[in-house]
Design brief:
The chain is 42% helix and 24% strand. The protein has 106 residues and is of the alpha+beta class. It has a four-stranded mixed sheet. It has one domain. The radius of gyration is 14 Å and the shape is elongated.
Length: 106
């Protein structure tokens, strides 16, 4: 993905980092057995993006309930999205970081 302006980069950061319970289509635990997206979104207890302008760093911080799904399932569906976020941040002149359950991954 190539960016042509800051607005497109910011939109990608907002869209691709969106993991939240509000996105769950069905809260039925039986549905979670077949729909990884709902399972991962339901497991996301907290999701926040912070920007450190002085350090030129954007960080996505998540708290994932591992009783609902293991963190690896987040990566199964969000790895490509995190690559887009890194590219968008780079276009804006920032580094991109990812913290899950207080563990810094990027």
């Amino acid at each position: 993905m190539n960016f042509t302006n800051a607005i497109s980069a910011v939109l990608v950061l907002a869209d691709k980092s969106d993991v939240d319970r509000s996105r769950v289509t069905s809260k039925d635990p039986e549905h979670f057995k077949v729909d990884i997206h709902d399972r991962v979104n339901y497991a996301a207890r907290e999701s926040a993006i912070s920007i450190d302008q002085a350090k030129k760093h954007i960080t996505l911080t998540l708290k994932i309930d591992t009783d609902v799904c293991p963190v690896i399932e987040y990566f199964e569906i969000f790895t490509e999205r995190m690559v887009f976020c890194r590219k968008a941040a780079k276009f804006l002149g920032y580094d991109f970081g990812l913290v899950i359950n207080n563990f810094k991954l990027l």
